[in-house]
Structure formats: structure tokens, C-alpha cells
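Figure S4 source data
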Amino acid sequence: MLDLSPFAWALLAFAALVIGLSKTAVPGAGTVAVASFAAVLPARESTGTILLLLILADMFAITMYVRHVNWRALLRLAPAIVAGLLVGVLFLAVADDAWVKRTIGVLLLGVIVVTLVRRRMASALVEGPPRRGAAAVYGTLGGFTTMVANAAGPVMSMYFLAARFPVKEFLGTAAWLFAIVNISKLPFSIGLGLITVPGLVLDAILAPLVVAGALGGRWIADRIDQRLFERLVIVLTIVGAVYLLI
């Protein structure tokens, strides 16, 4: 795994920066990092390798935004996320990888359309958290996508966007959600052999770039305009959906 070309190392270094940045400033960008790792490393090993870097970035994010968490929103989502995880397990039992990715890509595009329509219909949009039905739909889809393709980021970004969370509340709530989810996936990754010694060495090399991305992201989050932030989330979610489709 460590015998990589200079271009491959450059791509992984860029992806490591993006991982940190996605956790502290630009949600949805993490899909770009996932795609980069999958393009350079063997598919199974890339999943375990990137998981450890994601957890590292999660730790920085929850520390930076510990005062900006909407715990009520997390509790509202929890049952649906667990249900989505179980549905994902059943789906994986019958679907191949290509079918899984394309199904999620289509669902993500549908989520984007629904979210944009809701935002356009100002008279029908209620400020604050979405209704319980929306939490059930987004939470189930988020649990499903994280189980089958590590693609829950774009889904949950759409939920927090629909809730119209301020930038830091958005980032803090997402940080705690994914920290819990990613840590819970760690024992399964170890048991399945997805985390390897070469992968750990690679993580140690890339970890400083994750930290740099996370710190740089906090600087950006303190200065980014709310409208620009929301547009970036939407654009990067579309990129993630298209990646899964192709």
C-alpha cells in the first residue's frame, strides 16, 4: 500500500486536508476525500484507512464546537439512524456494490431536490428543526448510507440545512453525530480486516495534514457567510451524489 507514485501521494495528501476541512468548515467535502482514497488504495483497505482519519478529524471538530451542539436534534435522529443501519445490513445481503452506490446516488439527488423545493416554498417552511417525519426520513437514509457506502455526510448535511442551523450549530451537531457513528463502526472494521498495519503507517503520515485542515477549517468557519456556506454544502452534496452514480 505504501509503494505509491508521487501523484498518488499528492492525491492522498489533498484528501487528508479535505477530511479536516470537511469536519470543521465545509460539510460534504468529505465525499471528495473518500473518492480519492478509493481511487488510490484497494477498496477494502481504503475504507478502514480513511475511517481512522475521519475519527481524528471528528475529535478536533467536537472539541472546537462543543458549545454549539443541538442535542435535541441528535436525540430526534437517533432512532431513525439505528433503523437505517439495520436496513443497510439487509440491503447489503442482496445488493452488489454497483447497485448500492447508484441507489444511494439517486436517493441523494432526490434529497437535494426536496430540500431545495422546501427552501423555495418560504410560506410552507417553518423555522427551526424539521418536523418529526423529516427526522425519520433523513435519519433512516443517513443510517442506511453510512452502513452501505460511508456516504451519510451529504444526507445529514441536507437535514441540517433544511433545519436552517447557523454555521457553527450545523458543524457542532454534525461533528458529534459522525464521531459517535464512526467510533461505533471501528470494531467492525477491525474484525473485517479493513484496518491493516500499512494502513496505520499511512494514517500516521497523513494525520498532520488532517489536523492542519481541521485548524484551517475553524478559521474559515469563523469568517464564512451563511449563504455561501449553504451553497457550498449543496454543491458538494451534488458532487458526492454524482460520484456515487458514476
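Figure S5 source data
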Amino acid sequence: MTQQKLLPTTDPSVNKPANPREEGSLNTPHMRRILTSSFVGSAIEYYDFLLYATAAALVFNQVFFVGLSPAMAAFASFGTLAVGYLSRPLGGMIFGHFGDRLGRKKMLVLSMVMMGVATTAMGLIPTAESIGSLAAVLLITLRIVQGISVGGEWGGAMLIALEQAPSGKRGFAASFANMGAPAGATLATLAMSAATLLPDEQFLSWGWRIPFLLSAVLVLIALIIRLRVQESPLFQELEQKADDRRMPVMDVFRNNRRQLAIGITAGVAQFTMAGMVTVWAVNEVVANGADKTGVLNAKAAGAFVMLGATIISARLCDRLGRKKVLAAGMIGAMLAVFPILYLISLGTVPAYAVAVILGQGLQGFMFGPLGAFIAELFPTKVRYTGSSVAFQTASTLGAGFSPMIAAAVMASAAGTALLGGIWIAVLAACCFAVFMSVEGSKKNLAHIQ
């Protein structure tokens, strides 16, 4: 692809794109290849990462944390889940640093290889009965590698699409990386659901390992697609400038603190929804006697609905703006909190199906605009770092801790009432952060400072 230099503008208030590539269509061979790579790569990364979440709710408390009470085993299992989310901001910093220095594409390839190796290795870990506490240590170590990998994946996959998309379609292009999450979740859930059809003894012995080992094949497919993608022209133009990009992380924390705080807080909303309805709720309803296979199939249906909501909201955010669509999703989520908790409390597959479809649909409505919303907060020279740190920190605070917090709150006397109040308060804070931001859909990416 021939590089094109940015045309200077004498009037910074004019929003006309300064680069010809910002005028056009997503329906070109080049853009189709980019969007396919963004979607497929993210889907497989999230297949690996979210497969762990399902296994943490159904398997790990019985395989790696034996000898504990059911409540403590579930808490320990969710604790290892949180470790992966804790390491995601670290991955965002590491991959963001080198992505802003060396390029988006190289980091995308590296993150894919790391994730595939870690997930496949999880499927080979001996049980606690065989090697004792070393099993849990190996599990946690590989979970950290998973977290670092997915922490670097999202920023690159999102930016490789957003930075090459026409200006009026950036929100939809950026959402292809987000669409990978529900697609990967659907695939992971269905794979584990198929494994649960085995008798319980065989499922706990070896059946749960099959979806993890399948990762090796999926990652190979994604790498073949990803290696054909070209580097972002905006990054190539930045490389030609005498620009000091030695420490993008320090630049973000020194010069973009407000944008970082807004991006993190806004992102927490949809991740909290994910942690509550797809992780904590699964453990809750299965513990109350619901059929595991039925619960996982309902969860897969919810992820499918989330994918559709992500597409719709991404389209809308290019027309109406990122802030309006994000805020609408958050307000809808606040109104749905107590109905969702009531449905979960019934402990049946049909009730959980309604809860997870509603919750994931609202999550998707927030997820669609989120990539572009966060990316448009930061200038090109630190966009990979700033976007990754904001998004991955939000994932840690939202999805990483919400299942543990929910489990602890439900064990208290206040129970559902307190949990619902906390959940609504979190969503309200996220909505406030969105209102405090500046609309980015009309900004020229090359001019953001």
C-alpha cells in the first residue's frame, strides 16, 4: 500500500478529513481483509480467555481446588479468574508500548501465539490429586500469560481497523474487535457445553480438556489470516516524524490522565455486566440445581444476542455519536439490574436464559461504541498504549472482580438488595464518565492531541 502524507490544514476547526484514505468504503478487498483479521483474531483470543471463565464456574473448583468447602472452592476458582483480569492491564502496557514503537501488526501476531500456547497447555495440566498444589500454581501461571496476551490483543486488533477506516465508519470498523468477544464466547460456551454431554466422571476427568486443546488449531487458522494484514498507515506516517515515543506509557500517565480515567470508568459498565451474568450467575444457578448443559446453551444464546446488539450499536454510534449510544445502554442496564437478579434467584434454566439474554443484549449495546469511544480519546503516538490500558483496566475492575464481590455479598445478610444497589451505583458512575467526555466521532484522528 502506497503511503500518503497528511495534508496540513490552516483551520483546525474544520473537520474535513486530511487524508484521502478517510473517504471511502469498508467494502474493499483491503478493508475486508483487515476487518476479517480483526474479528477472527479477537474471536479466537476471547475463545481462549473466556473458555477459562466457563471452566472456572463449572470445573476448576472440583479439579484444582479439592478439599475445600463448595463456597471456598468457588471463591478460589473465581480468584484465579481474577488473576487473568489483573494481568490484562500489564499486557496492555507492554504490548501498547511496543505497539506504539514498533507497530500494531507485530504485536498482534505475538499476542496470538502466546494465547494459543497458554490455553493449550492448560488442557494438559495434571489434576491436584496427581501433583498437589503445583496444579493450581501452573494454572495461575498460565492464566497470567493469557491475561497479558489478551491485554495486548484488543488494542492492536481495534486500531488496525479504526486507523484505516473511513472517518464516518470508524465506530463500526473498530467494533469488529469487540464483535470477536461474543463470537469467541459463543464458541467457547458451545465447546464446553458439548463436553458436558459426557457423563460427569468423564467430563471432570478428561472431557473438559478438549475445548482447551482445540485452541492450537484455531490459533493456527487466525495466524494465517493475520499475517496477510498490512500495518496501519497512520503508524507508518508517525514513524517518519522526528517524534519522541520512547516511553508511551509515561506519556499517557503524564499527559492523558483525564482521558485515561474517562476511558477506564466508561468501560467498567459492560465488563461488570459480563462478570455478573456470564460468570457469577452460571455458578449460582448450577449450584441451585440447574442443568449445566442447559445453562451453557442459554449463555451461548446470550452471547449471540450480544453480537447482534454490538453490530447495531456500532452502526448507530457512527450516526448518533458514541456518547448517546453508550449512555443509553448504561441507563437500560441500570433499569434491568433487579429483574436480572430476580431471574437468577429462581435457579432454573428458562429464567437464567431470559436473564443472560437481557444482560448480554445490554452489554452488546454498550460494547459496540466502546472501542471507538476509547481510541478517540488518545493521539496516534500513544493510542495503542492509552486505549489498551483503559480497556484492560476496565476489564479488571469490572469482569475480574464482580464475580468474587457478588459471591461475597450474597453470603451476607443483605444479599440481593445490597448486590443490586452496588451494581446500579457502578453503572451510574460509568454513565457520568461518558457525559464528562468530549464526543469523538467527528474528530480527525491525525489531529487528536
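The radius of gyration is 21 Å. Confidence is low (pLDDT under 50) at residues 1-23.
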